[in-house]
């Protein structure tokens, strides 16, 4: 089982109001320069929010939502500090309610 960490926000906030594309480009460049494997994904309407355990989290976030999901908790903490108006958390997959997180991730 893998632990995934996430930052969750409305698509409008993260993709239109914030200069978030620059953040992702810089992070991708950093990973390539340091020969690190990409360990984060930008996911519109993340499927993990449909799990019964995530009902209260989904209710807190304006829809449609978008998430940055990563196996790197420090990256998610950094994003939270940079963005402020986001929800953070974690989940483990595969589990009974979240069968395969990576299979349900459709990146943009």
TrEMBL record:
One Pfam family here: Ycf54
Organism superkingdom: Bacteria
PANTHER family in UniProt: PTHR35319, YCF54
Family listed: Belongs to the ycf54 family.
Annotated protein name in UniProt: DUF2488 domain-containing protein
Organism of provenance: Dulcicalothrix desertica PCC 7102
């Amino acid at each position: 089982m893998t632990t995934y960490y996430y930052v969750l926000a409305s698509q409008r906030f993260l993709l239109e109001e914030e200069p978030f594309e620059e953040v992702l480009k810089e992070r991708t460049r950093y990973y390539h320069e340091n020969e690190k494997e990409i360990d984060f994904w930008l996911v519109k309407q993340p499927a993990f929010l449909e799990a019964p355990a995530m009902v209260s989290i989904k209710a807190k976030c304006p829809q449609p939502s978008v998430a940055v999901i990563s196996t790197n908790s420090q990256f998610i903490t950094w994003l939270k500090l940079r963005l402020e108006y986001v929800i953070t958390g974690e989940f483990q997959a595969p589990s009974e309610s979240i069968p395969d997180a990576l299979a349900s991730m459709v990146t943009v």
